[in-house]
Amino acid sequence: MVKFDAGFKKLSNNGELIDYNNPPKGKGFDGIWKKDGMFYINETKFGTGKLTSLQKKKIWIQDNINKIQDPDLKIKIQGAFDAGELKTIVTHVDTNGVVSIQPWQ
User: Fold this and answer.
1) Could you tell me the CA-to-CA distances from 48 to 61, 65, 75, 94 in Å, in that order?
2) What is the CA radius of gyration of the chain?
3) Edge-to-edge strands of the sheet including 31-35?
4) Residue predicted with more confidence, 99 or 79
5) Are residues 77 and 39 in contact, defined by beta-carbon separation less than 8 angstroms?
6) 89 pLDDT exceeds 50?
7) Which end of the chain is more exposed for a tag (fewer CB within 10 A), N or C?
8) What is d(CA 80, CA 76) in angstroms, rounded to the nearest whole number?
9) Whole-number pLDDT of residue 83
């Protein structure tokens, strides 16, 4: 299990966090984070939501790297992906607000 604690910096969506009142919008990664020089992409699921089979594939990750608007961030995430160093995690928030974070690759 990945633990989010002090030291994680959200690099996407102007650093805005998402929750039930501010869910992810559109296509792409729900979050891109950095900690201790490592990059993490995050998908967030609420209630009974789960990753789709497509989201678990490297082609989906690559397609969404291509959609990153910030050119500097895109280069960094692509480099981490190409080097096999990009961490993938899913954050699940159940209907009681309990959060769990797990790797998904």
Assistant:
1) 22, 26, 34, 7
2) 13
3) 9-10, 31-35, 38-46, 87-93, 99-103
4) 79
5) yes
6) yes
7) N
8) 6
9) 97
Coil, helix or strand at residue 24? coil
Query: Which tokens sit at 39?
Result: 């990059």
How many other CB atoms are there within 10 angstroms of residue 63's CB atom? 13
Q: Within 10 A of 69 (CB to CB), how many other CB atoms are there?
A: 8
Identify the burial level of 36 via C-beta atoms within 10 angstroms of its C-beta, where 0-12 means exposed, 13-18 middle and 19 or more buried. Answer: exposed
Q: Give the helix, strand, coil percentages of the chain, each rounded to 5.
A: 25, 30, 45
What is the residue-averaged pLDDT of the chain?
82
The contacts of residue 82 (CB under 8 Å, 6+ apart) are: none
